[in-house]
Design brief:
Elements lengths: L10 E5 L4 H12 L3 E6 L4 H9 L4 E5 L8 H12 L4 E4 L14 H28 L4 E6 L12 H21 L4 E8 L8 H5 L1 H10 L12 H8 L10 E4 L7
Parallel strand pairs: 1-2, 1-4, 2-3, 4-5, 5-6, 6-7
Helix pairs in contact: 1-8, 3-4, 4-5
């Protein structure tokens, strides 16, 4: 059964792999045997060093995912550098915290373009290549607790992550017959750049910790098992799932 979780001879494209959750996922996939194409604005130097230490390759593909038109070029460049892509992890995301009354159209478009629109076109570009070569593929979308809940002061982010949950299910329905599994991971409250403000707010930090049964913020390494499972043949009969990795937050 252990071989079912192996990613030997597999190639993964991970967006936003510089730090945080994306870095944790990229390193986990490499530890399971995959080579990685990291797509983003800046070279993921630290992630590349960790992947190399595991004896795997990391190729950097420069792309601005706020421009959804960059998706096709990014996938083509990743395939040229690394080989055909078997696994796509749509992790890159941004957040803008404002009262809903103050959200501008520019704020809205920036968040939706990165968090949802680019995810669709990256997924489409990878899926087309998988279908053309009659292979199997795995697509993992990084959702959120706000794929299930409303939150406050993050209107565009909530809309994007709720939309991402629906998109995950739709693509799972359409692409399962082509041998492509589309699933999502919904991280709970993790210690990343996106949550710096929350963790710095003593009152809000205490409120969050009081609701997490595990009693702590998640660390990027806590996503390793879920990511490897959904990327591997162990999940071949899993389609359209949004898997919470939240320390028990939703169960509270």
């Amino acid at each position: 059964m252990a071989n079912a979780f192996s990613l030997e001879n597999r190639r993964a494209l991970v967006t936003g792999a510089n730090t945080g959750l994306g870095q944790g996922i990229a390193v986990a996939l490499a530890a399971a045997g995959a080579d990685v194409a990291a797509v983003g604005r800046t070279p993921p130097t630290e992630t590349a060093a960790q992947v190399a230490a595991l004896g795997r390759r990391l190729e950097f593909v420069a792309a601005d995912l706020s421009d959804p038109g960059a998706a096709g070029d990014a996938v083509a460049a990743a395939a040229a550098a690394l080989g055909d892509i078997d696994i796509l992890v749509n992790n890159a995301g941004i957040i803008r915290r404002k009262d809903a009354l103050d959200v501008s159209e520019a704020d809205w478009d920036e968040v939706l373009n990165v968090n949802l629109k680019s995810v669709f076109f990256l997924s489409q570009a990878v899926a087309r290549r998988v279908v053309e070569r009659r292979a199997r593929g795995k697509i993992i979308n990084i959702a959120s607790m706000l794929s299930f809940q409303g939150g406050v002061r993050v209107a565009a982010y909530t809309a994007s992550k709720s939309g991402l949950a629906g998109l995950t299910k739709l693509l799972a329905n359409e692409w399962a017959p082509h041998g492509i599994n589309v699933n999502g991971i919904a991280p709970g409250y993790f210690a990343t750049n996106n949550t710096t403000a929350l963790r710095a707010d003593e009152k809000r930090n205490a409120e969050i910790l009081a609701r997490i049964p595990a009693g702590r913020w998640g660390e990027p390494s806590d996503l390793a098992g879920a990511a490897v499972f959904l990327a591997s043949s162990a999940s071949d009969y899993v389609h359209g799932v949004i898997l919470p990795v939240d320390g028990g937050w939703l169960a509270r």
